[in-house]
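User: For my dataset I need records formatted as: sequence, then structure tokens, nothing else. Please produce one.
Assistant:
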Amino acid sequence: MTARIHSLWLMPAPSDEALLAGIVGELSGRFDTPLFAPHLTLQGDTETTPELLEQTITAAAAAVGAFAEPVSLVEGSDAYFRSFYARFAVSSALATLKQALDPEGFASFMPHVSLLYGPVEASAKAAAIAEINARLAGRAIRFARIGIVTSGQDVPITDWRVVTSVALRSA
């Protein structure tokens, strides 16, 4: 039996989740790429049980209040899961959560919300990045909860499911 793989996602508040999901849907339709829920990965691909992860995220969520971060820039790369994304600075709230949930990954932490997965023709992708950057750069995205998600690099995107989520402390 294969171990269940989970990730820890920082999830946007409902109105920002709807905005970002709309962009993911728009880009998916334009480029025939997979649909997925917008999120900021705090830790990926862990075999830790959901029960232990829930204890960990509950403690982390109690330490950080819901917060908003401005999108620094929309950019792209050749990486499948980072093909097109909204990038954020490492704020104190993001640093606190990353240190609490994945301290080993802190040195390479690049907070972002992916907007498109997979390869896209370079000039069309560059044009779309410029368009979405004009819409999102500088816009604050509110983050409100941490989710435990059945997801990982080897889990089909269509099988990704939120197991549970915990709200960040009320501000």
